[in-house]
Amino acid sequence: MLLAALLASASLQLQPQAPGQASVSLCFEPAGAAIRYELLVTTQSPAGRSQSRQKGVAERNCPVHNSLRLPPGTRVEARLRWWVEGVEQVAVVREVGL
After folding, report:
1. Taking the CA of residue 79 as centre, how many other CA atoms within 13 Å lie in the half-sphere pointing to its CB?
2. What SS3 state is found at 4?
3. What is the rounded CA–CA span in Å between residue 51 and residue 42?
4. For burial by CB atoms within 10 Å, which of 10, 11, 47, 88 has the most?
5. Cα(86)–Cα(89) distance, rounded to whole angstroms?
6. How much is the pTM?
7. Measuring CA to CA, which residue among 58, 62, 2 is closest to residue 33?
8. Could you tell me if 44 and 54 are in contact, meaning their C-beta atoms sit under 8 angstroms apart?
């Protein structure tokens, strides 16, 4: 169990795209590890604040790939909590301004 937690890794990407757009992708290695995740995406814009949560078991290497359309001036934060065989790993946080 400890070995699986040491070998597992998470890659959380939050990148601006065209004006008013961003992409969020989440991948895990190695394939087949017992990985559970919770991804919270928070946006803060002149119009207000919103949150989106996705959680589940990673049944494939890259379980999340989302495109976001947001107004200019929006800040986006993606926060990942994840577990390998029930052992919580270090959280991963990414932030970008559009």
Report:
1. 7
2. helix
3. 4
4. 10
5. 9
6. 0.90
7. 58
8. no
Q: Pairing relation of β-strands 9-16 and 48-57? A: unpaired
Query: What is the distance in angstroms between the CA of the first residue and the CA of the last residue of the chain?
Result: 41
As a whole number of angstroms, the distance between CA 32 and CA 41 comes to 25
Task: Compute the distance between CA of residue 34 and CA of residue 86 in angstroms, rounded to an integer.
Answer: 8
Pair 85, 5: CB distance under 8 Å? yes
Q: In this predicted model, what pLDDT tens digit does every residue of 59-90 receive, in sequence order? A: 999 999 999 999 989 999 999 999 999 999 99
Partners of 18 in the beta sheet? none
Q: What angle do CA 30, 12, 90 make, to 5 degrees?
A: 75
**pLDDT digit string, tens, across residues 19-64:** 889 999 999 998 777 999 999 999 999 889 999 999 999 999 999 9
